[in-house]
Amino acid sequence: MINPAEVLSPNAQMIDHAMYEVFSKSSQKVEILSEHLIRHSEPPGKLEQDAIDLIARKYSDRHIDLIIGRGERALDFIERNGQTIWPDTPAMYYSLSSPDIYWRQRPQHISGVFIDYDYAANLALIMQLQPTVRHIIQIVESPHPEEIQQLHTKLAALAKAKQADLHVDTIGERPLADLLSFVAALPPDTALLAMTIDDDRDGVRYATDEVVRAISEKSSVPLYGMRSSYMGNGVVGGQVINLSEHGREAGQLALQLLKNPNGGPYTQISQKTRCVLDDRQIRRWGFDLNIIPEDCERPFNTPTLLERNAMQIIAFALMTAVIMLLIFGLQWQRKKRLRADEEANRQRTALAHVARLGSVGELTASIVHEINQPLGAILANADAATMMLNQQSHPDQELRAILADIRDDNLRASLIIQKLRVLLSKRSLESKPVSLNEVINTSRSLLGNLAIKHHVTIATELAEDLPLIMGDSTHLQQVLINLASNAMEAMEAVPPAQRTLSIRTKHNNPSHIQLIVADNGPGIPTNILPNIFESFYTTKPEGMGMGLAIVQTIVDAHSGRIDVFNNPGGGTTFVITFPVAKHFK
């Protein structure tokens, strides 16, 4: 958690409490570490660099799964330094106002939850309390002109749609003395709406609530506000954001990114608001208490003794009823959820089996495609043995090697059929710890024969101490063979001396390893690239369109991900990412 330098306010604590409650109710264990930013100059200087160095050393032995930034300054810090301190770690932000959407370029690869203020509801509240209002002045103190313009346009459009003669002005940051003089001379048909109040002005740093109170005390007209922090500091009230709901939404987004760090980026907007009014300001401006909306909270209301007692009795009765209803409801929901989970598991098993049976035609084609290579190798070896016998010059060791190849290819074809038959049964594919480097080494013989046939040079680069993955070595070997075979065929138009097939393994992420197969052929046309993994889709005159579809199916069965892209200098690269076996990292 990256926090601004200021001491956390009650509003911030309310958001965090709701967020931590979401974490505590989750089955996923979450450990939260917190850092507070130092104040910096613009642009950031040596102090920030010192902080970066300190944080990097502090967490050098910790694995961080997610970075969460509170507010604009924390987001700026993450955008500048996140990749330096925590490379490739997902990040998110919260407690940013929705107007930032208009002027701020959205962070790349960073998810977040904005806070959206309900202009329409606040405008309706002002007109209900002040039916004679004809002029609304909005205070937007921001260093971003785009934000000021967007907020003015939004409020002006709503006001015009609500009442044709309702005029809206928006004022930006100005010296405090000038602002106080301005609000003191406003006509009575005017209302002030505080959107953002800057606490750093005239070379002096104020507390925001001090500035809001000063404006309210000097103002000749009522002051309204949309932020929880303004309540109790001189504003009449407003439709303010539900900070607890915002905290819950931020917590749910954090759990989503922890479960799926490669997902996103996701952008959400918190829009749930609640009406809050200050009875002291209602009495100050002489508003009729009877016109106050019933759903408005009145935290500063002082009821009579009878009202206090009556409310306690009603509250106690309602609380008892609600508790009983909640207990009953939770029990009922729990039983319903358990039944739903059991039914969902049963249906998932049945649907998975139906899907396998529905793919019989596709699997038949895949079997033909898969055993074509070992059967072709058997035929080639048999032809070689026949030629040697006809020539009556056949060293015994060569014949023995040919017969051994025939036997190995026959066994491989049989094993492929056995593995594909598993897909038609209700049981899952059996997997065990497998070394991806051993799969590549085991395939060298067959890949060497293919390379000789296509006049291709194979370059391998295998990472040392590569962790094991959970999988099926035969299926993984088939993935490698299919990709290598396609790559060699793709380089037919390249001069033989320039045909190179690269096979590499990498381990840049503690939880994942990669298999990379690259060629220097002509590449894949961009209009074909999105369809290459579809079954029966092929650009080859004699192709069946099953090779890459099988690769995709096998990779998915191993909880992996396959990406493909054309190289800038020509050729195509396939990158397959597999999760590391948990107990064999």
Sum this structure up briefly:
The chain crosses the membrane at residues 310-330. This protein has 585 residues and is α/β, with parallel strands linked by helices. 48% of the residues lie in helices and 18% in strands.
What is the first-to-last residue Cα distance? 28 Å
Shape assignment:
elongated
Give the low-confidence spans.
Answer: 351-363, 423-428
What is the number of E strands?
21
Q: Strand pairing plus helix content: what structural class? A: alpha/beta
Give the biggest beta sheet.
Answer: 5 strands, mixed
In percent, how helical is the residue content?
Answer: 40-55%
Whole-number radius of gyration? 34 Å
Determine the number of helices (DSSP H or I, runs of at least 4 residues). Answer: 17
DSSP strand content: 15-25%
**Strand order in the largest sheet:** 16-18-19-21-20
Mean pLDDT: 82
